[in-house]
Amino acid sequence: MEYRRLGRSGLKVSALSFGSWVTYSNQLDGKQARECMAAARDAGVNFFDNAEGYAAGESERLMGQALRDLRWTREHYVVSSKFFWGLSDDPNVRHTLNRKYLLSAVDNSLKRFGLDYLDLIFCHRPDPNTPIEETVWAMHDIINRGKALYWGTSEWSAGQIRTAWDIAERHHLHKPVMEQPQYNLFVRQRVEQEFATLYADIGLGLTVWSPLASGALTGKYLAGIPKDSRGALKGYEWLHERLLDEKRTAAVRALKPIADELGCTLSQLAIAWCLRNPHVSTVITGASRAAQVVENMKALDVLPKLDDALAARMDAACAGAIDAL
Amino acid sequence: MEYRRLGRSGLKVSALSFGSWVTYSNQLDGKQARECMAAARDAGVNFFDNAEGYAAGESERLMGQALRDLRWTREHYVVSSKFFWGLSDDPNVRHTLNRKYLLSAVDNSLKRFGLDYLDLIFCHRPDPNTPIEETVWAMHDIINRGKALYWGTSEWSAGQIRTAWDIAERHHLHKPVMEQPQYNLFVRQRVEQEFATLYADIGLGLTVWSPLASGALTGKYLAGIPKDSRGALKGYEWLHERLLDEKRTAAVRALKPIADELGCTLSQLAIAWCLRNPHVSTVITGASRAAQVVENMKALDVLPKLDDALAARMDAACAGAIDAL
Amino acid sequence: MEYRRLGRSGLKVSALSFGSWVTYSNQLDGKQARECMAAARDAGVNFFDNAEGYAAGESERLMGQALRDLRWTREHYVVSSKFFWGLSDDPNVRHTLNRKYLLSAVDNSLKRFGLDYLDLIFCHRPDPNTPIEETVWAMHDIINRGKALYWGTSEWSAGQIRTAWDIAERHHLHKPVMEQPQYNLFVRQRVEQEFATLYADIGLGLTVWSPLASGALTGKYLAGIPKDSRGALKGYEWLHERLLDEKRTAAVRALKPIADELGCTLSQLAIAWCLRNPHVSTVITGASRAAQVVENMKALDVLPKLDDALAARMDAACAGAIDAL
Amino acid sequence: MEYRRLGRSGLKVSALSFGSWVTYSNQLDGKQARECMAAARDAGVNFFDNAEGYAAGESERLMGQALRDLRWTREHYVVSSKFFWGLSDDPNVRHTLNRKYLLSAVDNSLKRFGLDYLDLIFCHRPDPNTPIEETVWAMHDIINRGKALYWGTSEWSAGQIRTAWDIAERHHLHKPVMEQPQYNLFVRQRVEQEFATLYADIGLGLTVWSPLASGALTGKYLAGIPKDSRGALKGYEWLHERLLDEKRTAAVRALKPIADELGCTLSQLAIAWCLRNPHVSTVITGASRAAQVVENMKALDVLPKLDDALAARMDAACAGAIDAL
């Protein structure tokens, strides 16, 4: 496994990490979760991404149980949670980053996990209805109380991240260290353009999600939505349009020969492509079976073969399918 | 229910809230308190205002018991207390905002409530004998120790609030977020004029009290002081003059036709009028019976009908009865 | 009793307070200590001064026991300790204000007192071998951890106090609030001259000690050292020279007619004189019998009679006996 | 024993201190450790140096047990640990000063020692892969939580130390107080030249290690590596070259007559030479037998005899053997 610094911080995360979004609870039971995490650990994965909102808290419970079952030394793994969506419709719980919500959300998350502290906590989305200063103070206080080690954001704009960092610098508070943006061959403008100055200026690290564009880059949906795929799950109808998008499917077809040349799957190619970006600290992958974890990890073997010429061919293949900022 | 941000903060409070001043203990027992709070909760009220000094601590005890009886999730309600008057004549307890008093007052309040933390704490009046810096530090330390989430002031001048905010900004301490001023058709100069620059400059929020001018705006006192009214309570003789003030009773009589036109009570009209002010985060209402709570809440239905023309007629009706700053 | 603000702070201390130096343990047992403190409390005294070094910790133990015996509400009294001399010869205990010493000294003092927190803590003397910044940080941390409420100095120079205040302002730490200097008719230059700018600039409060110049101002030593006086105690031989100093005894003889005119004792006159200084927050008095406490308190009745003309006569009486700075 | 301030701080450390590197666990059992520490204590030593990495944690356990066995008052001794090497190969444990590692490393160290707090904690080496700001914050938080009293560095460059100090000053955090460099007749450039401005500018204190250059300055290795010496221990083969270095052995031979003139051993002469440097707060010595401790302490008797002329002769003797910076 390759380990990368989380941005400018001293924390080392495995270049490939394991996220529990969707797959836990909805599709996974405790045994499968433990097997996936054991496979990930055996492959050298040390970062496990989670969020309060994944499966309404059940994902944190399953992961906490699996960590205990695996008898893993606390110092050796990095676990995250994210806060914003909230687990009820209350105006101070749903869609907020206010102090009241954040302080209890972390306590509740720790209880579900059965942990004393989280390694990383993320503001899961920006909240236009809470001043960034209030959120920065709450994040600082959580870290100051020993309940988390580092904090960051997810799907914030460059301006919002910079504002948070500046407030923390001015008031001598713990600064945001990382951002969790979507990043894949189709969605790349924010990471490559909008965030450009943040890497050098504030040392932003990235824990990117959706390397396979919700599965579109697996090639699984080239002939429609298979019955046993995530796209066919109840509640995921909103994904159909993007999964079957014509420009995207054309791009996937154009990528296939490159994967074949490298002797890898489309998924491995897409994941390896994310890893080429030096600002990416880790690519979060998902899996519902241990074998799938092992498959994903092979992207690391693809990485050294993915030279500039091949990357240029991949860019050309996707040219028409890249989302505007 | 409409929810508003508490000033610039991310905390959402119900536009109408429930205060326990006077009504608790003096007039209410535990069962009535619980019924009033249940009715308020059912109407969507999430903010419950209290103070150490209300019924000498008994008000906090009753409210704490009611919250437990209602088995309400802690994250879903916002509860306040206020400190300044003190519960004994000791020179470091009576009429002070010094560090010694504030630190033990909060602990004592939490014990009476049976809570781990308060959401809002107020400096109940300014204390000319304690430097504002000392009070700001004490408020910060209370929040830093997790015993409260936000702090503010009550009946402070614009200059005092601004001084507190500036000290907090300079020393990187938690800033005051809200002020609790008297605000009603008769008492409005401070909110509308003196505080004017504070809304944009520091994002001050208002939790206003006395929307009915101690009952004068209910119309109840037009023909003198009824025997079963608060004005007739022992210890409230000081209210008589204001309740029976000629200019005020004339104004109330002039407001009556407007209420009739809108098909609402004078009280509902007066409360709705307060809500028109966008700087008002919440209007604190009182009640000694659940039915009264329900009545008060109907002010929310009046609000959309209260257009600029009607508001101008209300201003005209009260013109002679508005207190000078 | 008159209560005065402790300098610019909001804490109110009784103009006359009770100190346990010398009298405890050496001369007093638990019963006498309790009786003296009860008499002081009955007279309205709310500040009880102490130090780690008084009777090697025994003074704190006796005072803590007396406070428990008197079942006094914690909010209603103000208790102090002081640190510097240390209770052993260890280089990090004896004569130091370093972080290591201060942090454990406070813990040890709280254990002896049986208290959760001290109201005031003093740096008992300046320590030229510890940077003032280290001492300020330790004082701040002690207050921040809730083990004390305010901190100050004793027998520090104006420059040292100002340096401590400036460091605290620059690093956003709790500032020194009070100084405990010697102050009496013979020793007054520091309080009246050296500290002059500190009162307005930083709001320094004074808790002055030795209002009777170790007893010289009682008149007790005019005819030598009586066998039952403190001056005759073993270990106080160093006092003899000052107690029998010719210029001082001449001054005491010249003050006697003024005391007689006012119908008070020399002690009461000397204590009242200290209280005339508006920068004095409290005058610390000692006593080994309850009756003596009552006697001392009568200085408060003398104060209003001590007009400028009488004070000028007192100055003249002492003119030759005032210590140089 | 002579006690020196740890740099500009108020902490006093014995000029000679006792370090447990190598000797503990590898060569020492619990009884020997206790005897060595008892001998050191009897000689007035109050500083005991340790590190997480010494004998993989066993050194801290043995020292903690010895301190308990000796029933030593906590205030009277100063104990250190150091963090960087880590006790496993995990990327967030091995060779790092990141927040995650430091916070748990201190907790683990306290558990091994059986102590509530450490006096001194050192960053055992600089970590180019963690921003100094992250390390400074972690050190501050550890001190702020009461788990250590002072922090410093070991084998950092002047620029790195200064950077850490500046960050702490800017963000109002606890500053580094001391550095633990190698310092002896052969390795002196950093202490004497590179650090020169730090003594006055930031008041850096030094706790120097290896006063005998891994034993070379004992004269023990003049005729090769004796079988019972540390140089013959398994795992210390890397030392051989330096121990047998020709220029060094020539220097040792040239120092011998000076030691003879002073009537002391070569070791005592080398240790005394370190103590001549006023920036050295303490020289850390090692021993595996109590008698050796006693021998080392005699360096203090040599110190007053070591005048400038003799020191110049020592410089001349070593001239060819001094390491370049």
TrEMBL record, chains A, B, C, D:
<keyword id="KW-0521">NADP</keyword>
<comment type="similarity">
    <text>Belongs to the shaker potassium channel beta subunit family.</text>
</comment>
<dbReference type="InterPro" id="IPR036812">
    <property type="entry name" value="NAD(P)_OxRdtase_dom_sf"/>
</dbReference>
<feature type="domain" description="NADP-dependent oxidoreductase">
    <location>
        <begin position="16"/>
        <end position="316"/>
    </location>
</feature>
<dbReference type="InterPro" id="IPR023210">
    <property type="entry name" value="NADP_OxRdtase_dom"/>
</dbReference>
<protein>
    <submittedName>
        <fullName>Aldo/keto reductase</fullName>
    </submittedName>
</protein>
<dbReference type="InterPro" id="IPR005399">
    <property type="entry name" value="K_chnl_volt-dep_bsu_KCNAB-rel"/>
</dbReference>
<dbReference type="Pfam" id="PF00248">
    <property type="entry name" value="Aldo_ket_red"/>
</dbReference>
<keyword id="KW-0560">Oxidoreductase</keyword>
